[in-house]
Amino acid sequence: MSVAQAWLVVIVLTGVGASLAGANDLRSPESFSSIGDQADRSRSLFVEAGRVLQHPRCLNCHPAGDRPSQGEDQHPHTPLVVRGLDDKGATALRCVTCHQAANFTPSGVPGHPLWQMAPREMAWQGKSLPQICEQIKDPRRNGGKTLTQIHEHLAHDTLVGWAWAPGGSREPAPGTQAQLGALTAAWIETGAACPTR
Amino acid sequence: MSMTLNVNGTRRDFYGDPDTPLLWVIREQLGLTGTKYGCGIAQCGACTIHVDGVPLRSCSAPVAAMTGRAITTIEGLASRVAKAVQKAWVDLDVVQCGYCQSGQIMSAVALLEKKPKATDEDIDHALAGNICRCATYQRIRAAIHLAAKRLASKEGA
Fold it and tell me: Could you give all domains of chain B from N- to C-terminal order, each with its CATH number?
């Protein structure tokens, strides 16, 4: 047995391979099938999806208050910008003043055609995952969406999808948008239970 | 690629890399040097122009995105509001070194076009992305208020 083969055996037997697969991966819904209690499985599915929801790529534009943050450390956005009346910036300092339809490498400024902040009632920063879960299910705080529409938003909204193609040195959200969509669908199918802590 | 730009109401041809920052096209190819290069990363506001009437940092926009859009630089400002702002700038001697001032004026004009009665908070929010190393901020604020006052009283240019 070669050294390489020996290492392969160690990896398979110890499960080290799973961690080597990358801390930025998401688990599949099927990997939760061993959890017999449906509500427990639902909660666990949301916790996994929460790795995306609580990632800086999402939280930076779901801020508490009127100013977005930026960067992996979620520092206040520079220059100082505010959400304005339509969540797209103040008069004469709009999101589109700097953010164009696509990430722009020469300046390093990220972009998307629909760039904007999440509405104030959808603030996630500073909230626990159980709080975010309850908020996502509450039509008064989720833009009047049904769970089906929440799934659509997370699985297919292209602005959400920017989180996996943020450009520059920005860290993408864990996994893929399709994986988040699968987790969200499984969470809803299992009763959309929220984690308790 | 080749394309035609609408700059200050005039058709201008461009041929080159579609990802060229608009600022370089304006300054280097069209010779409109009133728009300044400050930081190149949309942090200082010196390169501010208007695209379809909305302020835009020209260092952070690809020229390819400008097809069919109306670009206005400091050289092309001609509205009643723009003239009032420029006159207030001169009357209050706002400028010190002057490098950031075209960007400041572009943002100020866009603000007053939308909000004729701009408050201090409106000014703070609208011009937060326009940095002045000479710290002429108080004179900028005063000039915007003066221009707004003159426009409201029909003294505006």
Answer: 2-76 (3.10.20.30), 80-152 (1.10.150.120)
